[in-house]
Write a structure and sequence with these properties.
- The complex is a heterotrimer.
- Chain A contains 25 helices and 17 strands.
- Chain A is an alpha+beta fold.
- Chain A has a domain of 200 residues: Aldehyde Ferredoxin Oxidoreductase Protein, subunit A, domain 2.
- In chain A, the strands form four sheets. In chain A, strands 2-1-6-3-4-5 form a six-stranded mixed β-sheet, with helices on both faces. Chain A has a six-stranded mixed β-sheet with strand order 8-7-12-9-10-11. A three-stranded antiparallel β-sheet of chain A has the order 13-14-15.
- In chain A, helix 1 crosses helix 2.
- The longest helix of chain A is centred in the C-terminal third of the chain and has 22 residues.
- By secondary structure, chain B is α+β, with helices and mostly antiparallel strands.
- Chain B has one domain.
- Chain B contains two helices and four strands; from the N terminus they run βαβαββ.
- Chain B has a four-stranded mixed β-sheet with strand order 2-1-4-3.
- In chain C, the strands form three sheets. In chain C, strands 1-6 form a two-stranded antiparallel ribbon.
- Chain C has a single domain, classed as Alpha-Beta Plaits.
- Classes of the chains: A alpha+beta, B alpha+beta, C alpha+beta.
- Chains in contact: A-B, A-C.
Amino acid sequence: MIRMVHVFGLWGRLLDIDLSSGKVAEMRINPMTYRMFIGGRGLAAYILWRELGRKWRDVDPLGPENILTVLTGPLTGYYPGIKISVSGKSPQSGGVVGSTVSSHIAYAIKACGYDGLVIRGASRDPVYIYVKDGDVEVRDASKLWGLGGMDLIKALRSELGKDTPSLYIGPAGENLVRTAAVMARWFHAAGYGGYGAVMGSKKLKAIVVDGSGPLPPVASMDEFTKLRCSVIDNVVGRATFRKWGTTSAIWGVGHDTSSEPIRNWQEEWHNREEFNHVLIEWRYWVKNPWADWGCPLACMKVSKVRIGGVTYLSDGPDYEMGAYLGSNLGVFEVDKMIALSAMADDLGLCGIQTGNVMGFAVELYERGVLTREDVGYELRWGDFEGLKRLMEDITYRRGIGRVLAEGTYRAAVAIARMKGVDPSEVLKYAVQVKGIGIGAHGIRSRKDYPQPIAYAASVQGGDHTSVAGLPANSEESESWSAFLDSAVVCSFTSVDEDTMIKYVNAVTGWTLTKEELYSVVGPRILTLQRVMLLLGGPDVRWDPRLHDENPPRFYEPLPSGPYTGGFVPREEVRKNLEEYYKQLGWDEYGIPTEETVRKLGLYDLADVVKDIRKELGVS
Amino acid sequence: MFCLHFYGNLAHSIGRTICLDTEKCVNIYLLVEELLRSKNEPISVDELLITTADGKQVAHESTTCDLSEVRVMRLVRGG
Amino acid sequence: MATSQGQIWILVDYSLCSGCRLCEIACSLKHEGLIWPAASRITVHEDYPGCPVPQYCVQCHDYPCVSACPTKALKVDQNTGAVLVDPSLCTLCLSCVQACPGKIPKVVKGKQYVLICDLCSGDPACVKECARAGYNALRVVRKPRGTSIKHYARPPEMVVREVCGRVLGD
């Protein structure tokens, strides 16, 4: 049989755009590389290591030497529930985070004949990238610079004459706020990793893609059609999730499983009837259902509130935003929670990371660590006006916002220095792992995310969409998230492992098996990410003995709710870490062994892991 | 013999596989709900995806006499 | 033009449309054997959050596109009422696009003729997909009598503005 395309379902080429020189080239990705790293997150790690690996530690994530990758994967466009993977060296963790976001741009890129974009260098003046089929233009964006999401989409629409899929940043990304997200379609964000700031550092306001071609053919049309129908039926069967989306979790995760952040995680349980999704639906939703490209799930809703003469539009809000900009800030009035969520989206902030650092700041204020002199105004739980001001100060790096814009971890270290106290005195209120604020799913009740090493062992730190767990050869390990993010598909529409693997094979023509996924492909991506995370730099360095750890707060017993007294047992954390590492072929400190990296085909890592071990004095 | 295979978080808290001897034909969704309650899991059956071995969603009226095994997954809840 | 009893029509309910584009995917899979949204005969427009507008040929009673075609490449399917394009006669002169009150016929790079909804010979793939996905924003009905249906064929930006006005209020 003659192969028409590189790999079925993929084109095998990326656009390689250098913003310093304005040069555009094509980067070929061979079928073997796809087979080894799948695409998306895995491919990003591969490209970043290949291009920057030798000097990884010195690469400033916010310098022109960093590379921003925007990649699809083999399931993009074929599997219901579209995503695109945004990556680069993370200004939060110093490693690589595969951040995904739902956006029509994912299929549009493939419809242009490419699998993704690799963006290097930095422009001197604000620009946006416009791709129309085979043509790439780096266009002037000086008139767009400074605009929030809503206005930007309007401006792009009138400039281009039609609605065209885009990824963009708000003012937060422009100001290099480390909690800034890469935004899409008003309310969508690739938040983890802080890639909004990376776009800002490249003076890149937006990426707009207009593709008019077809997606590449699939390997087996019959099998693909059959699987696609069965997945759609499966997803449509999730009646309550379709009706209320993740908004229902604002009530349920707090009330039922007791794992929702409240006042910077001082509590994880609430009994707030007003958080009920049915009430939210009646009071605030103007549109239900609302879906992304090719998605039968429609987890999104459009809500609208009016406060003080200002209209705010947001989605649900979805659970993470509801929790982090609601209960975590002591905001229990749903209209204000929606307004803060709408503000974060428009400013281009990651609601999770920003809600995390804001909650941290309010707690520090409450405890007297931060004072009115430091902040300039009072910080109080649930104080809408004050919190709005704080969010804007972070976005524009004003006053205390300049410190908080660095994200929770760096802010904690800076505040300790400012106050002349030991960093641990401030870090004990920072609910983060390796520079990344924990997603809104606590582990103390053990009823939501039950694994005590979920975050401590994750190669993406506090990322709740990529958690670790035992056993390593099951969908509880991080290999599963690595697979979903590399095939680039939404975890909400994902189904059982067997079907997902069959689906990838039907599209690509591969013969991937579950065994191979858990023993080779998943560990390969994780191992590469782990090594880059341990290298870190330039301003952060993680010691696995200290930083493969939960935030101190997770060792405090839960003070309220049905799981009062619940905490994470320290011994179990260490024991499970060692077991998990062993299963992945890493040593007791979680440093991949030379034998493992060779077995996984990551030959050039052998010397690197030896050096890491030497540096830590554990060789 | 009717077997339930649990995936993800549920496998961690309930166990990977539970097999039951059921004399009567019991509605599968009710059975799972009862099981969750007996294990003190604060999860409602709405949050689960119950499928056959080949990934098809189990019909709401199916009983333990119609099938010999099902897979139970917890849907991702919360963004 | 004769209107037979069996003619069908695709009814749209904007409030049920999620903007998911599964209709576009199904249409291109059916007609082109590929996922090719640009070549879909149905197009979803969405300029503001929450007000997607699917647009497709609504089979005006007077068929201005058919009368405007200088090469007789367009004709009306007497069974379904759909406008059928003869690829061998179409010269892509765009007369039909200009004649259409909604500018709906599509021209796509890679296709040598204009694309217009053919109602899938009476069993539209988009409608089936919309039902499969549980939205039911599109439904097949008997073609309504009277000329009012033509008002659905308006430039997309006009429809979007009105639908958004109703959803978002301002």
